[in-house]
Amino acid sequence: MSELEQALAFMAAHEDRAADRLVQFPFGTAIVTPSLPRVYDLNLLRVERPKGASAEGLAAEAERIQGEAGLTHRRVAVPAGGEELAEEFEQLGWVTERDVVMAHRRWTARAEAARGRAEEVGGAELLPLRETMIRGEPYGEEKETVCQLAASKRVWTDAVETRYFTVRDEGEIGSCTDLYLDGGTAQIEDVATLERFRGRGHASAVVVAGLEAAAGSGHDFAFLVADADDWPQRLYEQLGFEELGVTYRFLRRPGVAGRD
Q1: pTM for the full model?
Q2: Structure confidence by residue, pLDDT tens digits, 79-124
Q3: Same domain, 206 and 83
Q4: What is the maximum alpha-carbon separation in the chain?
């Protein structure tokens, strides 16, 4: 198994444990969580066998499975081979999202400088910061969406061993991250920094704390996932992460009709 496959398997197992139920379809597994219908990452079709799949066919499967579950969005995740389907999905009116999977390879000068600045805390301490970050997103204007996304954090962290790291600034939590642990694998996830505290190295500090905790507990493979079209991946490169591969997700938002 390659490191990319190891990371993808880790995330798939986490999704499976967090979901309300799983539904098999010809090209993979649907993660279905009607209890949190606005949490798209807990309601998606994961394409595990992309050979022979088409955007039109996958869209039809999403319509069938997610429609029967009462979901208003449609989401398809293609961990491998998604690039070949992107144009087809876009022609159907879907939005393409790309994520880069990155593995930690080495300790850099920037990582060394960030050591010792973060502390480990309980997950409940991070909830106010998480809710503030959600409300700052375009989708954070709706109270129900904020509530469901906040609730989903507990679902994710209950599904796998999780540790939490933060940096305090001006007497409050300014930055944080979660560390998911399973077997010999560790995932650093949900790195967040309040806007007024950015540019102070806090994100580097919480990521490094997570890496140290992973190594200290015997997890010899650490990875994270970043938006392939956003700047944080450059920060992670400076901390010693290297790209393993790019995954694709396709989304049709509620109220957007598909194209013929």
Answers
A1: 0.94
A2: 988 999 999 999 999 999 999 999 999 999 999 999 999 999 999 9
A3: no
A4: 56
State which amino acid sits at residue 217. Answer: S
Give the span between the Cα atoms of 197 and 195, in whole angstroms.
5
Does residue 17 belong to any structural domain of this protein? yes
Mean pLDDT of the chain: 95
Question: Cβ atoms within 10 A of the Cβ of 218, count?
Answer: 10
Q: Is residue 146 part of a domain?
A: yes
In a domain, residue 257? The reply is no
Structural domain that includes position 121: 106-239
Q: CB under 8 Å to 95, separation ≥6 — which residues?
A: 250, 251, 252, 253
Amino acid at 206: V
Residue 168: per-residue pLDDT? 96
> Would strands 28-32 and 21-25 be described as parallel, antiparallel, or unpaired?
antiparallel
Tell me: do 30 and 82 sit in the same domain: yes
pLDDT of residue 141: 85
Apex 121 CA angle, 162 and 204, nearest 5 = 85
Confidence of residue 125 (pLDDT cuts 50, 70, 90): very high
Element (H, E) at 205: helix 202-216
Sort 162 into a burial class: Cβ within 10 Å, 0-12 / 13-18 / 19+: middle
The tokens describing 245, both together, are: 């591969």
Could you tell me which of 26, 19, 31 has the C-alpha nearest to residue 54?
26
